[in-house]
Structures are given as C-alpha cells and as structure tokens.
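[agent] plan:
  1. take the single chain provided in the ticket
  2. run structure prediction with default settings
  3. attach structure tokens to the ticket
  4. add a short note for the reviewer (M.T.)
[agent] executing step 1
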Amino acid sequence: MGRGFHLQWGRWTLDLETRPQVMGIINVTPDSFSDGGDFFSQGAAIDQGLRLVEAGADLLDVGGESTRPGAERVSEAQELDRVAGVVAGLAGRVDVPISVDTYKSGVAEAALAAGAAIINDISAGRFDPRLLELAASAGVPLILMHMKGEPHNMQKNPVYDDLIGEVGSFLREAVVRALAAGVKRDLIVLDPGIGFGKTFDHNLILINRLKELTRLGQPLLVGPSRKAFLGHILGGVPPKDRDVATAAAVTLSAYHGAHILRVHDVRLAREVLAVTAAVMREHA
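[agent] step 2 finished; step 3 output follows
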C-alpha cells in the first residue's frame, strides 16, 4: 500500500506498509465513556484482552485512567494498581505487543517492567517530560497525541484558526521534544487526537484531511472508536451502539493515511480494513 513504515524493536515488528494495524482497547476504569466498569476487575480486563487478540488485534492498549471529556486525574498509585496486574497477566498469554495508555512516567515504567512494550501518551510528553526519557532508555515506541488543553477542560469551546496547521505544528514540536530526549525517530507514532479538544466539525475535518498530517513523516494512529461525533451524526445513539459508525470512520481514516486504528470492536475493524486494503492495492 506504499505506506513505507515498519515499527521494529526488541522482538516485535509491526508492518504498517502491508495493511493498517488494529489496536484493541482495554479500559481498566470505572468511568470510561464507552465501557466504563465493564472490564474494571483484573480478571475481566485480562479476559477482554484475550478476546481482542483472538478477534485479530495486532496490539493491545491498556489504560487505567479515563480521559473522557471532563475527566479528572487519578493518582499514580491508583492508576498503577489498575494496570500493572492486567499487563503482567496478558504479557504471558498473548503474542502481540501491549501498549500502556498513560502520561505518568511512574505508571509507564512499572508497566514496561510488567511486560508492556509501547507507551501511548495523550499529553505528548507535556504532563510528565520524564516519560520521554523513559521511552528513549527503554527503546520502545512512543505514541504522541494532540490535545487542546486537558481532559477536564478540552471540550470547553475549542477554537482553531487553522486546525490542520495547528495540529501539525503541535505534533511536529512533540517530535522535536521526543528526539531531544533520545527517542529514535523510527519509533515515534503520532495521533491527531480525535475527540480531544475538537468540535464535531473538527473531527470530520481531521479524518478528511489526514493525508496532510502524513507529511510529518511519522506513522499515524487514529482513534475514532465510539466517540461523541459519531453519536452526533447518528442522532444521539449511545456509545456501545456506535461500532458500525466506527467502522465507517476507520475505513475513511485508513483510506486517508492512518497506519494504526484504535478500536473497541476489533473483529469489525479487521474486516473493513481488509476490504479497504484490497481496494487501495488495486487503486495503486
């Protein structure tokens, strides 16, 4: 498909050229917007991870703090208590890399020790700069996301003069910070932050103009799964009823240049991406 990216580190390789990769979401939280509480116990979260891998997940993303709009921070100890056992339990039973979804270096460090192999930071290193140094010393991929503000205030009238330009500049500066901390360029993934400080229209524009962000020269992760802009389009359906709409967003994101899609329903995403990849190969 001409995407030209491989993530290669340790014993892991993610081939982003042949087809987009699917990241399965595991929320070990009581209050995430789409499935809060469903996988809050360690056993339930591990079982969900196993189901996602069986459904075809190429990698898993384990998070212990909700970052839904309006969410307040939880302590490092509380977050670590939620994720460490889940990561350790999955690392010994699945043969896909596990990402820890955190902006706290202490949580990331413990998760890596427990078997995680990727750090997914919604703050792009702004909230805890030591996290960049940790990713560099560990030699693991680092996902840097654009967010306007913080989760508790990001949806309070987000305004941009030039959405794509501002998101691109933010991500470019995040790459510079990561490189300065010692992170290897070929292990940096960028996320435009669908739903993080974006209006309904902003999210649609980001997906439609994603190709412009590929010019940053890094693989792109997009996470549209079950988010509010889909509910808005569908007239207010609840998050768990947005998986078909998510599949449409996943298809369009892949078509416009996404390399990794972060989703709740892995099987559906794999199916639509298989068709998307086949069409794009023929088109090429």
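[agent] step 4 note for reviewer: The chain has ten helices and ten strands.
[agent] ticket updated
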